[in-house]
Automatic annotation (TrEMBL), chain A:
GO cellular component: ATP-binding cassette (ABC) transporter complex; periplasmic space
Pfam families assigned to the protein according to its UniProt record, in alphabetical order: SBP_bac_5
Example of a GO biological process term: peptide transport
Descriptive protein name: ABC transporter substrate-binding protein
Signal peptide residue numbers: 1-22
Organism of derivation: Streptomyces radicis
UniProt GO MF annotations: peptide transmembrane transporter activity
Highest taxon in the source lineage: Bacteria
Domain Solute-binding protein family: 90-463
Automatic annotation (TrEMBL), chain B:
Domain named ABC transmembrane type-1: residues: 96-299
The protein's name: ABC transporter permease
Pfam family, one: BPD_transp_1
GO biological process, any: transmembrane transport
Keyword Transmembrane helix: yes
Family of the protein in this entry: Belongs to the binding-protein-dependent transport system permease family.
Source organism of the structure: Streptomyces radicis
Location in the cell: Cell membrane
Domain of life: Bacteria
The keyword Transmembrane is annotated on this UniProt entry: yes
PROSITE patterns: ABC_TM1 (PS50928)
SUPFAM superfamilies, A to Z: MetI-like (SSF161098)
Transmembrane parts of this sequence: 12-30, 98-120, 132-152, 176-194, 230-256, 276-302
Length: 545, 309
């Protein structure tokens, strides 16, 4: 019986473990958390997730990290709802006559959360550090306009940087520095509104890794703690000098794996703000929460379907055919039914919150018009092989609208139309880069900065990387070049607006709809406003009780 | 006995190496480049991509990469994540407590309620109690786990307000009750069915008649002889089930927002975080192997005729 006895011991251990768990099970039941919130000092609980990168402004390029960075750091300039800029941490941002030298003057008296002053050096050193290839920052390319960038970030693979600093950045005095650009950019202040252009305190350089776990910024909130995959806590920074000081005691960002769960938590009072409700809850959320506690408004993102010209060139007049296909899509119905109001029909290549937006830029090309659609497609020589294939990534909610678009096209044009789901976004991108798209792909673009340049040049210039459709139009390129060389912002915007008109004649892609933010908030909080980037302005939120 | 255990432990080594190798290769074969994905739709920075590949050792031959990985494992180094640059051991360590708590709770429910129901049904085979239990268990088996999950969340959680519908704090046992119940429901029903049929079969066995003949009370006969002999198939099922509970809780974890092992593998797979996937799977393999050993040892406890030399 020797064997049996030792095995009994094993069984005994299991029994003890089970008993222990049973005891543990009891004490949890009475542990209901009584969230006590003092008035004015209340904490805003908002949905979020696990940031993918260390929390350094120049390394964060996804929404969950950005939610932290944008509240812990204050940018030099920020954007109003119409896409115009206003200064935050900067006193002024001024260009010289030909827009090649920008002078930044900082507001006096600002401090980092560790108490050290924010100076011109805090900016210059931070940007030099981030641009250096050895520090492998995801947003390093944002500094590529600055003179000396290729010295710290050589283009060649395996090359070592030849300098420690970019010669284009110069500190003038404690609160002033200048940025020299390789080529004049009349809208460089728009780029300065990106998260990467923020300062870092002296303490950062001692241990960047530790900083990434616990960032110290110059913004309205100071970082408190990060419990991985669970919560991130921010507290109001009492010595904040900016105009947008926090009206609440702090923010608690709760990680959710699914938006459905976050919505359930919002309804049961365990969450204050949800930034986007799940497709499941779209039909009813405005009724559930009330019109005054929910929002559905477009933000600076657009969805398109983009033809690949290596497949479309076979047709006599591809642009005309694509105009026809565009008119065969019933955007109004699809956004209302299949997409449940989570998108707004597009009438332009850029959303309304972007500076330079022209209402009805398209004329009638995005209107649903079956007769005209049939005529245009027929006259243009027809869709190649009478078959549309829309490539998309299956790891996001695209299948339903792709099918709806196809059904609309099939009904009007009587051609074949199918979706081509690729497992995920990375695979989708690879197929696009390799030039293996069968006919069209799903395109999406979100504003880096709300200016029409960003929505046009990055996608439709013949040399643009993200121009996966290989659209190549000398006229459009020429207008882009004219805009880039323009003396001031308005002239730049005007040239790009002209280019946008031309795009509707050449159809490098079919605009479908603008992204919408479908957010909501609970009875605990007030003054919740979402900006044109689709994010709630957290500093303005007040907490009652 | 000691020798048997030692032999089994030694056998684990090739199984472990083989399975991690397969997983490693599968991750490698997946389309989609995690480094390229860091740039999204933007123009990738080829110089920086090269530098990152070099640093993470992704330029080496795949077999060399695997060898380095194995060497690291031996020293307790599971590698680092590509995006966050966090240690995989730390990432797993963060996800593990929630999963362990959930597993322990669900498993206890399965064992206690499942075997209990099966025993009652088996002893009252053919009567009303048996039919009632049959009905309940069939219902549980036929409902997919997400239906059960949402039902639990909606009624006791949201509508009646008895309990928080979404886990607020994964260290809180009370919060974990609903997901544990949802997770346990299906297996519980299986265990009840298995126990019942086993009991019904053994009730008429010779040893039961002997036990009665030698004057044992009914309780003692059932407890010492009948139940013990009937548990062998159930224990086998429970062993496999334990491994499933630890990793297969993706759906339940998603519904109740528990950041456990299941969700970790799922998101790591989506983000092509190879080191994390292989790390978690290696860990799960060890769990399965150990549980299988314990199950085999338990056979000897349950049935004295089984001996391990």
């Amino acid at each position: 019986m020797r064997g049996a006895r030792s095995a009994k011991w094993v069984a005994g251990a299991i029994a003890v473990a089970l008993a222990a768990s049973a005891c543990g099970g009891d004490d949890g039941d009475d542990g209901e958390d009584g969230a006590s919130e003092g008035s004015g000092e209340g904490i805003v609980r908002i949905d979020g997730g696990e940031p993918q990168n260390a929390l350094i402004p120049t390394n964060t390029n996804e929404q969950f990290g950005a939610l932290v960075i944008q509240n812990v750091f204050s940018k030099l300039v920020d954007f109003a709802d119409d896409g115009s800029t206003f200064t935050v941490a900067a006193e002024s941002v001024e260009a010289n006559e030909d827009n090649s030298l920008w002078t930044i003057t900082l507001k006096d008296g600002w401090t980092f959360h560790d108490g050290t002053p924010v100076t011109a050096e805090s900016y210059v050193n931070a940007w030099n550090w981030a641009a250096n290839i050895q520090n492998e920052q995801n947003n390093a390319f944002w500094f590529a306009d600055i003179v000396g960038y290729e010295d710290v970030h050589p283009e060649e693979e395996g090359a070592e940087p030849t300098a420690e600093t970019m010669s284009g950045l110069a500190v003038v005095d404690d609160l002033t520095f200048t940025i020299e650009l390789t080529t004049p950019v009349s809208y460089y202040d728009y780029k300065l509104g990106y998260d990467a252009f923020t300062p870092l305190p002296e303490s950062f350089y001692d241990d960047p890794e530790a900083f990434g776990e616990s960032p110290v910024g110059n913004g309205p909130y100071e970082f408190v703690s990060w419990e991985h995959e669970e919560t991130i806590e921010l507290a109001r920074y009492e010595d904040y000098q900016g105009d947008n000081a926090a009206q609440n005691g702090g923010i608690q960002i709760q990680a959710y794996d699914s938006l459905e769960t976050a919505y359930t938590d919002l309804q049961s009072g365990n969450l204050d703000i949800i930034r986007q409700v799940a497709p499941r809850d779209l039909p009813l959320y405005r009724q559930d929460l009330g019109e005054d506690r929910s929002v559905a408004q477009p933000y600076n993102g657009i969805q398109t379907i983009t033809p690949v010209w290596y497949e479309w060139d076979a047709t006599d007049n591809p642009a005309q055919v694509l105009q026809g296909v565009s008119m065969a899509i019933d955007r109004e119905t699809i956004t209302q039914t299949v997409l449940n109001g989570s998108r707004f029909p597009a009438d332009s290549y850029l959303p309304p919150g972007v500076y330079g937006y022209q209402e009805n830029a398209d004329g009638t090309i995005t209107d649903f018009n079956p007769e005209e659609a049939q005529r245009l497609v027929e006259e243009g020589g027809g869709v190649p092989d009478d078959r549309l294939v829309i490539q998309y990534n299956a790891d996001a909610d695209h299948q339903e609208w792709v099918e709806a678009v196809c059904n609309s096209v099939i009904e009007v044009l009587d051609i074949e139309c199918v979706g081509d789901p690729l497992v995920d976004f990375a695979t989708d991108l690879e197929a696009r880069e390799a030039g293996e798209v069968q006919s069209m792909y799903r395109g999406g673009w979100f504003a880096d900065y709300p200016l029409n340049v960003n929505f046009l040049k990055e996608l439709y210039a013949s040399y643009a990387h993200s121009n996966y459709g290989q659209f190549d139009s000398p006229e459009v390129d020429a207008l882009f070049a004219e805009g880039d060389a323009a003396a001031d912002l308005d002239a730049t915007v005007a040239a790009y607006q002209e280019a946008e008109q031309l795009l509707f004649e050449q159809m490098p892609s079919i605009p479908l709809w603008f992204n919408a933010v479908n957010g909501g908030w609970g009875p605990n909080v007030d003054n919740v406003v979402f900006n044109s980037a689709g994010q709630p302005i957290l500093t303005d939120v007040t907490v009652s009780e | 006995m000691g020798r048997y255990v030692a032999r089994r432990l030694l056998q684990m080594i090739p199984v472990f190496i083989g399975s991690t190798f397969i997983i490693f290769m599968m991750m490698y074969a997946l389309p989609g480049d995690p480094i390229r994905a860091l740039w999204g739709e933007r123009a990738p920075d080829h110089a920086q991509m090269a530098a990152m590949r070099e640093e993470l050792g992704l330029n080496d031959h795949i077999l060399k990469q695997y060898w380095d990985y194995l060497l690291g494992l031996l020293q307790g180094d599971f590698g680092t994540q590509i995006r966050s640059r966090r240690e995989v051991t730390e990432v797993i360590g963060d996800a593990l407590p929630a999963t362990l708590r959930l597993t322990v709770m669900a498993f206890s429910i399965i064992v206690v309620v499942g075997i209990g129901l099966g025993l009652v049904a088996g002893l009252r085979a053919g009567r009303k109690t048996d039919t009632a239990i049959l009905f309940v268990t069939l219902l549980l088996i036929s409902l997919p786990v997400f239906v059960i999950g949402y039902l639990y969340q909606t009624y006791p959680g949201q509508q009646w307000g008895w309990i928080t519908p979404v886990v607020q704090d994964s260290e809180n046992w009370g919060d974990l009750l609903l997901p544990a119940l949802a997770l346990a429901s299906l297996s519980l029903a299986y265990v009840a069915r298995l126990t019942r049929s086993s009991i019904v079969e053994n009730r008429r066995a010779d040893y039961m008649r002997t036990a009665k003949a030698k004057g044992l009370t009914r309780t003692r006969a059932v407890r010492v002889h009948l139940l013990r002999n009937s548990l062998i198939p159930v224990v086998t099922f429970l062993g496999v089930n334990l491994g499933e509970l630890m990793t297969g809780a993706i759906v339940t974890e998603g519904i109740f927002n528990i950041h456990g092992i299941g969700r970790l593998v799922y998101s790591a797979l989506n983000e092509r975080e190879g080191a994390t996937v292989v790390g978690v799977v290696s860990f799960v393999i060890v769990v399965y192997l150990v549980v299988a050993l314990i199950v085999d040892l338990l056979y000897a406890v349950l049935d004295p005729r089984i001996r391990y030399a």
